[in-house]
Amino acid sequence: MSKAVRESRGKARRIVRVAVLVGLASVLHAVEALIPVPYVMPGAKLGLANTVALYAVLRLGLGEALMISFLRTLLGSLVSGTFLNISYYLSTGGAVVSTLVMYGAGRIPRERLSTVGVSIGGAATHNITQLLLAAAILRTTGVFFYLPYLLFFAVPTGIFTGFLVRRLVKLG
User: Fold this and answer.
1) Of 168, 134, 170, which Cα lies nearest the Cα of 55?
2) Mean pLDDT of 9-15
3) 10, 26, 121, 163: least CB-packed within 10 angstroms?
């Protein structure tokens, strides 16, 4: 088999892997939107779709992880009818920035920062980014009163996501 054919097959496998992960992340995004959130904490989510982004950061690389995060929010907004509204911008901004942070944190050796730590950082970054964007769009800093509540949920959801991804990475 020639080198060109091997390279072509490798690229095709990578494209298929990214497409499957975008599909999985989109389904998780949609499923998560159906899970009723207590009225005490509107906006809090489990971060199921972020498991795919974290997996991609650790196994594929930054480009693929950003593509998955962006396309997941795009497809999710088209399905849910939120495309180009404030929810779309908050979701996309949070997903992209948290993916960048997880990528950076993922470069730290595991003996210094575990997958769970990377995940918690991504969850917190997602929430902080969303509040920064909301403050800019709404032109008010009043939204930051919500930060402690969001971070309260970011830690356990980040732990759950981190443990799940750590298991998936070990599986291959």
Assistant:
1) 168
2) 83
3) 10
Number of Cβ within a 10 Å radius of residue 122? 30
Answer for the pair 111, 64: CB distance below 8 angstroms, yes or no: no
Q: What backbone torsions phi and psi does residue 94 show, to the nearest 5 degrees? A: -60, -40
What does the alpha-carbon distance between residue 53 and residue 55 come to, in Å, rounded to a whole number? 5
Tens-place pLDDT, residues 44-95: 677 788 899 999 999 899 999 999 999 999 998 888 788 888 889 998 999 9
Amino acid identity of 146? Y
Average pLDDT, the chain: 87
Q: How far, in Å, CA of 68 to CA of 169, rounded?
A: 17
Decide: helix, strand or coil at residue 78: helix
User: Which domains are assigned to the chain?
Assistant: 3-171 (1.10.1760.20)
Q: Is 1 helix (H, G, I), strand (E, B) or coil?
A: coil
Could you give the C-alpha distances from 125 to 116, 158, 171, in angstroms and in order? 14, 11, 27
**What is the residue type of 136?**
A
